[in-house]
Amino acid sequence: MNKQSGLTLLECILSLSIFSVVLSVVMIFSMTAYRMVQSIEEQVETEENVRAAVDRISETIRYTDRAREKVEVSGKELNIYIDDVSNPSHGKHAYTLLKNGTLKESFGGGINDLAHNISVFEPSLEKDLLTVKIGREGIHGQPAFTLKKVFYLGDE
């Protein structure tokens, strides 16, 4: 009797099939994890953008004398008028949300993109209170993120 050792064709096909199923399951889990990481990174980036924009608006108001008289809201645009003795062209800081989701700051002939992926920018002014709401509505199954800050513009 001649005994030969080795794999038969059936054993090779069966082992490759099992390997393919295991590899498919691993790939599905990997792709799901990758999509979750991308979604979380985008959410974190949006939150950082919103906080940076609110900080910038807060800083501009903080350096404005008699802010009650120099802040105005026109629709979805926030205007803050600055008296800058060293550079009179800086006069007005305007904050506007563009259609592409970019919150921009215009001042003295320059433009800054403060935040991206923004869909909510709602400034409102009532007496001595300026309320600024900035954020993004939930898209692609992501939760919405909105930051609302109230500034007191009256005398200290």
Describe this entry's structure for a reader:
It is a single chain. This protein is rod-shaped. The chain is 37% helix and 31% strand. The strands form two sheets. Strands 1-2-3-4-5 form a five-stranded antiparallel β-sheet. A three-stranded antiparallel β-sheet has the order 6-7-8, covered by helices on one side. The N and C termini lie far apart (105 Å). The longest helix has 54 residues, at 9-62. The chain has helices spanning 9-62, 67-70, and strands spanning 71-74, 77-81, 92-97, 103-107, 110-115, 120-126, 129-136, 145-152. The chain has 156 residues and is of the alpha+beta class. The protein is built from two helices and eight strands, in the order ααββββββββ. The chain has one domain.
What percentage of amino acids are in beta strands? 25-35%
Shape: rod-shaped
Q: Write down the domain tally.
A: 1
Give the proportion of residues in helices.
Answer: 25-40%
Class inferred from helices and paired strands: alpha+beta
Specify the biggest β-sheet. Answer: 5 strands, antiparallel
Q: Unreliable stretches, pLDDT < 50, 5 or more residues?
A: none
Strand element count: 8
Mean pLDDT: 85
Give the N-to-C terminal Cα separation: 105 Å
Largest beta sheet: strand ordering: 1-2-3-4-5
SSE pattern: HHEEEEEEEE
The Rg value, from CA coordinates, equals 28 Å
Number of helices: 2
